[in-house]
Amino acid sequence: MAKDKFKVAIIGAGMIANAAHIPAWKDLPNDVEIVAVMDVFEANAQNTAKMHGIPKAYTNAEKMLEECKPDIVSVCTPNCYHKQYTILSLEAGAHVLCEKPVATSARDAAEMFDTAERVGKLLFVGQTMRWSGNVIAAKELVDLGKLGEMYYAETASLRRRGVPKWGMFHMKEHNAGGPLYDIGVHSLDALLWIMGNPKVIAASGATYLKIANRDEGLRTSLADSGAPLGLFTPRPYDYREFNVEDFGVGFMRLEGGATIYLKASWAANIAEGMGGTFILGTEGGLKLQPLTYVTNMGSYMVDVTPHVPQERQVAFFGHFKECEHFVRVIRGEEKELLVKRAEALNVMRALDAIYKSAEVGHEVPVEDVN
Ligand SMILES: NC(=O)c1ccc[n+]([C@@H]2O[C@H](COP(=O)([O-])OP(=O)(O)OC[C@H]3O[C@@H](n4cnc5c(N)ncnc54)[C@H](O)[C@@H]3O)[C@@H](O)[C@H]2O)c1
After folding, report:
1. Is there an atom of ligand 1 within 6 Å of 128 CB?
2. Beta carbon of 12 within 6 Å of any ligand 1 atom
């Protein structure tokens, strides 16, 4: 192995490891080499190693870290295990790319970042939506002041029938939450980033489980539930085990007076075209999909369609960008990580408050939860 190549290890050998992290790391052959993969289910570790030509497969993370001494670890387990493996890997001397949501509470996330700071390693959260061309363009328009004062925004990631029917997404014990943690966290993170990361100070939320815990006998596709390349490590799925929300909603108050609405569903009786993201400002408004900027010119209202360059046509494009960026930052070729500690904690605190509010039935100040 060339001397300056980073050794990468993967923890959690499921859909996202096989479909996104491993291909993205392999796309950087001059920078990294995947040396090992670990999964509690031996077959997943073994099959993943075989499929991608990874030299070693483990069922014990400590052993893998000890024997392989990776420079970078991709944490790709269900949400409830992000914290333990991130801290373990950081303490073993690796930088960590951790899947979203970074943790299942802001407190845990803070502990993970504290550990990274203490051991002098980087913790990078996989908020891949930030690499979307439309999100980057929207942020630029906002940074140019084209919206003026932003006072209201909405973001809705709505799937009519898109429950991930693999792994353990549907079980609280392993993932802690449903679509709010799965797809809501992406759209909330992207929206707050576009808006310049205003602090969320309070939230009122509600969660529902009305549809996904019954067998409707519908034919649904894996692609519709977020696995466009199919599954590499299928596991049995039982709708009777479904105990997270299938629809969640949160109304948030931001420092400075703006408010935002977040909605996320895996199963809801929605019509085509509901959902998406928009921001209202005093000088203009933005819609993310398709990207449209509205404002006034002279005595006319105008709609502007920015021409966003085509992204590379590859599934999980954001993972390719984030792995490359992570390597550049570790090498000191780029100054700082795109996803900062304060931003990740702001998102986690908001989600904590939404879930808490859903539990208690009234608005909850973020500081009361954390
Ligand atoms: N950024 C994205 O677009 C995106 C998309 C899908 C999933 N994800 C995230 O990736 C993570 C994994 O999702 P997935 O779709 O790959 O799920 P998955 O169920 O397909 O894979 C998870 C893997 O972790 C293994 N595992 C379970 N418990 C473990 C433990 N305690 N220790 C070690 N391994 C364990 C499972 O055997 C499985 O192989 C989740 O946090 C999810 O939110 C991100």
Report:
1. yes
2. yes
Q: Do residues 143 and 15 both lie within one domain?
A: no
Q: 165 and 197 share a domain?
A: yes
**CA atoms within 13 A of residue 91's CA, in its CB half-sphere:** 12
The CATH number given to whatever domain includes residue 209 is 3.30.360.10
Nearest-atom number in ligand 1 for the CA of 12 is: 24
18 close to ligand 1 (CB < 6 Angstrom): no
| Residue of the CA atom closest to atom 5 of ligand 1 | 16
For ligand 1, is residue 166 a contact (CB within 6 Å)?
yes
Ligand 1 near 317 CB (within 6 A):
no
Residues 262 and 325 in one domain: no
Which pLDDT tens digits describe the chain residue by residue (370 residues)? 445 899 999 999 999 999 999 999 999 999 999 999 999 999 999 999 999 999 999 999 999 999 999 999 999 999 999 999 999 999 999 999 999 999 999 999 999 999 999 999 999 999 999 999 999 999 999 999 999 999 999 999 999 999 998 889 999 999 999 999 999 999 999 999 999 999 999 999 999 999 999 999 998 888 988 898 888 877 788 999 999 999 999 999 999 999 999 999 999 999 988 899 999 999 999 999 999 999 999 999 999 999 999 888 888 999 999 999 999 999 999 999 999 999 999 999 999 999 999 999 999 999 989 7
From CA 186, how far away is CA 275, in angstroms rounded?
14
Phi, psi angle pair for 123, to nearest 5°: -115, 120
Q: Are residues 190 and 216 in the same domain?
A: yes
* Cα–Cα distance for residue pair 219/209, rounded to 1 Å: 20
Number of domains in the chain: 2
Residues 166 and 207 in one domain: yes
